[in-house]
Amino acid sequence: MTDEQKRLITVTVPVLKENGVLLTTHFYKRMFTHNPELKNMFNMGNQQSGKQQTALAMAVLAYAENIANPMVLLPVVDRIGHKHTSLDIRPEHYMIVGNHLLESIKEVLGEAATPAIIDAWGAAYQQLASLMSGHEAKLYEKQTIKTNGWTGWRPFKVGKKNIESAEITSFYLYPTDGGHVPMHIPGQYLSVRTFLPDLNLNQARQYSISSAPNEEYYRISVKREKGQNLDANGLISNYLHDFVNEGDVIDLTSPAGNFILAENIAAPIVLISGGVGLTPLMSMLQSLTGKNHTQPITWLHGCRNKSVHAFKDQLDQITSTNSNVKQHTFYNVVTPEDIANGVMEGHLDISSILELHQHPDTNYFICGPSAFIQKQFQDLQAQGINKNAIFFEEFGPQLLQLN
Ligand SMILES: Cc1cc2nc3c(=O)[nH]c(=O)nc-3n(C[C@H](O)[C@H](O)[C@H](O)COP(=O)(O)OP(=O)(O)OC[C@H]3O[C@@H](n4cnc5c(N)ncnc54)[C@H](O)[C@@H]3O)c2cc1C
Ligand code: HEM
């Protein structure tokens, strides 16, 4: 890009940001009108709830804002790249998005959109698209060269469906082609895609793998999402609970994500989960105990009450057979029986656990709702724990900027 192009970008970013909602609304409307097939790729729930429709266009603007030093955005490119590869997004899709984004910029800027300004935006988008699709090409390559690796969508059969709590059900997923699967890294997620007859669309969602790495199957554990309005229930989670049964087939992409347990980690581990956020941590715990990790592991879990406490029996069994694993459980509502079993009342509070940071190398993994992650992160920092030792996963577009 020329210096003049960079200058033109810098001058127009504030106008586009000011009109951010107009830009993104325009962009998605345009894209879904001209390329309706992309509705199968995007989360139409996110589009409705307004949570994420700005993510793509806003990320482009954030990049443009840093056009003088785009490298500051590299860590974000890796996270988005994992999400994109998990949705099978390929270089040709960047062409379509770029075309609609440029047309939307023209429409928002109106007469101010001179040919030089549009050229500059074209060059900036191209640069970002090459950076991102180049990184994604490396991620696809890594997936391909893994033993049993694959990229894109692959059909899997539900081998077993198991109720884990009043709200969470597990699905054990085996490839229909009879092949094996690559071992995931504990903490990773995969995308599940299924056809929704009511929408006449395919829809995909991410689910953390809750089983320990193995070459036979992946287990995901899905919480039935009730909408805040009674008529707005979660599309895929309810579909999986109600209509996907043993023997049915759904499509999966390869494990992705960088919320992961380092290989051969030899440090104490603290796993902190809220509600269904326990799924990636179950994979970590089962993997660690399966490998005879001898360092202390502390499992902290908070949920509303015993009826929604998934994997309780399995966790009790793991703690009773591994002397290095301790668990502390918090229920919002406790019964005398819960108290007798050592459950604490109220929201998960790390300050009530004395032996949490006995070793400076301890790694902390948090997963749960955004407000939960934020609270645990702040409480850990208040105890003097370095933020570089704290890792977290949000079950939605990453909006938190904590470390
Ligand atoms: C990395 C990652 C890992 C994840 N791991 C897991 C996991 O292990 N287990 C798990 O259960 N989930 C997990 N999730 C969340 C999962 O991907 C889905 O977001 C979740 O299942 C909800 O999807 P859905 O289709 O049921 O709901 P959607 O239809 O996508 O709706 C999402 C929420 O918005 C509400 N909503 C939708 N439309 C409206 C509307 N018009 N008005 C008001 N509210 C509305 C819904 O009721 C619901 O609560 C993970 C997400 C990510 C990103
Ligand atoms: C330079 C171009 C792009 C940028 C800057 C960008 C940015 C982003 C960001 C920030 C997210 C959210 C990540 C998260 O969940 O934390 C995201 C998710 C996503 N992106 Fe992109 N993206 C680009 C190109 C594309 C293309 C070409 C496609 C496909 C046509 C695409 C499809 C998606 C989808 C489907 C999601 C998941 C969210 C959803 O389903 O609504 N993106 N992208």
UniProtKB/TrEMBL annotation:
**InterPro entries named among the record's database cross-references:** FAD-bd_FR_type, Flavoprot_Pyr_Nucl_cyt_Rdtase, FNR_nucleotide-bd, Globin, Globin-like_sf, Globin/Proto, OxRdtase_FAD/NAD-bd, Riboflavin_synthase-like_b-brl
Under the heading PROSITE patterns, the entry gives: FAD_FR, GLOBIN
Give yes or no: UniProt keyword Transport: yes
Reply yes or no: does the keyword GTP-binding apply: no
Tell me which cofactor or cofactors this protein depends on: FAD; heme b
| Domain (Globin): residue spans on this chain | 1-137
EC supergroup of this enzyme:
oxidoreductase
* UniProt-listed GO biological process terms: cellular response to nitrosative stress; nitric oxide catabolic process
Give start-end ranges for the coiled-coil region(s).
none
Q: What is the E.C. number?
A: 1.14.12.17
Where does the source fall among the domains of life? Bacteria
Question: Where does the record place the FAD-binding FR-type domain?
Answer: 151-262
Annotated catalysed reactions: 2 nitric oxide + NADPH + 2 O2 = 2 nitrate + NADP(+) + H(+); 2 nitric oxide + NADH + 2 O2 = 2 nitrate + NAD(+) + H(+)
Q: Which UniProt keywords apply?
A: FAD, Flavoprotein, Heme, Iron, Metal-binding, NAD, NADP, Oxidoreductase, Oxygen transport, Transport
GO function terms (MF aspect):
FAD binding; heme binding; metal ion binding; nitric oxide dioxygenase NAD(P)H activity; oxygen binding; oxygen carrier activity
Record-stated family: Belongs to the globin family. Two-domain flavohemoproteins subfamily.
* Name of the protein in its database record: Flavohemoprotein
